[in-house]
Amino acid sequence: MSVSSMNDMEAKSSERVIEVREFEASKDCLGVEDVERRCEVGPSGALSLFTDLLGDPICRVRHSPAFLMLVAEIGEEKEIVGMIRGCIKTVTCGKKLYRNGKNNKQPLPVFTKLAYILGLRVSPSHRRMGIGLKLVEKMEEWFRENGAEYSYIATESDNFASVKLFTNKCGYSKFRTPSILVNPVFAHRVNVSNRVTILKLGPNDAEYLYRRRFSTTEFFPRDIDSILNNKLSLGTFLAVPRGSHNADSWPGSDLFLLDPPESWAVLSVWNCKDVFKLEVRGASRVRRTLAKTTRVVDKALPFLKLPSVPEVFRPFGFHFLYGVGGEGPRADKMVKALCRHAHNFAKESGCSVVATEVASREPLRFGIPHWKTLSCAEDLWCIKRLGEDYSDGSVGDWTKSPPDLSIFVDPREF
């Protein structure tokens, strides 16, 4: 073999050396944005969903208690060809019964330190080189160093490359299959039932209600107070039967829960619009024209209350509804009223859609308005136990636990 041939081989080898390091905003933003532009985000098919991070690559994790972003670069020119984001928090993984008195057993949450992987991207021209695997392994090292007991990811069930990477190569197992429910924001306001009163709760009242009624829900964040007091949290809203409570007679969540009405519901609103925007690409001219026609008619004839397709073919913002819960035989009707109120709120804020995510068996999901064509019936969450030296406690190995009826979806990670 000639010297020149050996030099060529060494050059090609050096070009394929992959280095993974922590993201540096001062020099990495352009490279990260370039990879983001070339990667599709969302279900496979003709239509693709793209994310505009508004110049802040760590926007989707920066509100978590602990977070990290890594980039992968290759070759002598240090071209960024991949990235991954991760965060760590403490959440409910189960519950145990605490005996309070002779016959009174009170369920208490069992917490664990949980890590979450999101935003894994690899440039299309550099796939099948082990870059995604290397990014995941490096992120998991950081998780373990910071005491995380479990790691989980969310991906589309039909994203076969992602599912294969995590389940076949990274040791994750399929865990939960929640549903993402998306409803368009119409050009007209929607009516809220006059049989329901909607109250806005302050952060302290909201925290008390959530901790007392929903802290044993799977994935409930122990730092719920940080979420509710975040500037992106636009408010918590409570629906009760008309005549039971109003803004002037509101007794506070503690007294409310001592004597609640037969049915009630609650949800909170998170402002994703100021964090990132989405855009649907790949739509045909016919589809765009039909969508525009529905908006024109809806705006010109609002009294008809015709459903219209919002402008989703250019960057649009949305609100995320989290902490959806309630009690009583009419709780689903209360949730429906809250979602209608949230729709009108989103319309005033210039959003194109409202979205939420609930467990696949969530009883209240039937009260959540959504369009099937915009929604994802089966999102896929995969989980991995990061070490065997953790105490099983009263829950056991969480990865082997059956699903509950409800989950709490953290808006900081949507």
Automatic annotation (TrEMBL):
InterPro entries: Acyl_CoA_acyltransferase (IPR016181), GNAT_dom (IPR000182), Plant_NAT (IPR052810)
Domain of life: Eukaryota
Descriptive protein name: Acetyltransf_1 domain-containing protein
CDD domains per record: NAT_SF
Organism from which the protein derives: Cephalotus follicularis
Family: Belongs to the acetyltransferase family.
Domain N-acetyltransferase: 18-191
GO MF entry, a single one: acyltransferase activity, transferring groups other than amino-acyl groups
